[in-house]
Amino acid sequence: MSTHTPVCELLGIEHPIVQAPVAADPRLPAAVSNAGGLGSLGLSWSDDAGDVVRETAGLTDRPLSGNFVLNSDQQHRVDQALSAGLRVVSFIFGDPRSYVDVVHDAGGLVMHTVGSAEEARRAVGCGVDVIIAQGWEAGGHVWGGVATLPLVPAVVDVVAPVPVIAAGGIGDARGVAAVLALGAQAALLGTRFLLADEMRSTRNTGVA
Ligand SMILES: Cc1cc2nc3c(=O)[nH]c(=O)nc-3n(C[C@H](O)[C@H](O)[C@H](O)COP(=O)(O)O)c2cc1C
């Protein structure tokens, strides 16, 4: 099984590993991106999302993503992040429709987290480029009620050829291999990365 999947090419990363957006601290995302995965910033509560993106870009010249929780209006922060050079933007909770064009107009890619096959179909219909299928095992911000094992192949079948990244309960290489076998093209890990050295003194986590 090749682990350099088409979504790795699309995102410009070496390994099919995406770090979940668990904080607005640049250190962990920069370390993950420097190691060949995709580091993610949680930008939903940043005073200036552009400042966080610029600070992180000072630590890595590899691709990065920034995440926005859509239970409040994030247009201003999305604009700040895009102006600072962010080109992979992910969303969770709510409807990404009104954000897709502004990201595409900036030359960026949109990823959206879904918890069901029907939601995945709607997201692709409004122009989302990459689907994150998040099972209910996921830590932190959890959206759906379907477990990762049944959710991932259902979403893959509905959205193909749009790439799917699996999230929820993946903690080691066996879990990554399992979701690749289910048709996902990468794995997104959150809880596992909370143990990283770079998280020890992290500020602005999404942990309540
Ligand atoms: C501490 C923590 C904070 C999180 N905050 C966010 C967030 O702000 N936005 C988001 O899209 N997902 C968030 N998540 C969910 C992750 O994106 C991801 O779906 C989840 O961590 C995957 O499951 P796992 O924790 O079992 O690896 C968070 C997860 C954790 C553990």
Which features does this protein show?
single chain, 208 residues, alpha/beta, TIM Barrel, eight-stranded parallel beta sheet, 8 helices, binds flavin mononucleotide
Q: How would you characterize the overall build of this protein?
A:
This protein is of the alpha/beta class and 208 residues long. It has helices spanning 6-11, 27-34, 49-57, 75-83, 97-105, 117-125, 148-159, 173-181; strands spanning 17-19, 39-42, 64-69, 88-92, 109-114, 130-134, 164-167, 186-189. An eight-stranded parallel sheet has the order 1-8-7-6-5-4-3-2. It has eight helices and eight strands, in the order αβαβαβαβαβαβαβαβ. The radius of gyration is 15 Å and the shape is globular. The protein has one domain (6-196): TIM Barrel (Alpha-Beta Barrel), CATH 3.20.20.70. 34% of the residues lie in helices and 18% in strands. It binds flavin mononucleotide. Flavin mononucleotide (FMN) is lined by residues 20-22, 42, 44, 67, 69, 92, 113, 134, 137-141, 167-170, 188-192, 205-207.
Overall mean pLDDT: 95
CATH level 1 class label: Alpha Beta
Attached small molecules: flavin mononucleotide
How far apart are the first and last residues' alpha carbons, in Å? 38 Å
* Strand residue percentage: 15-25%
CATH topology type = TIM Barrel
Largest sheet, in brief, is:
8 strands, parallel
What is the helix fraction of residues, given as a range? Answer: 25-40%
Strand arrangement, major sheet: 1-8-7-6-5-4-3-2
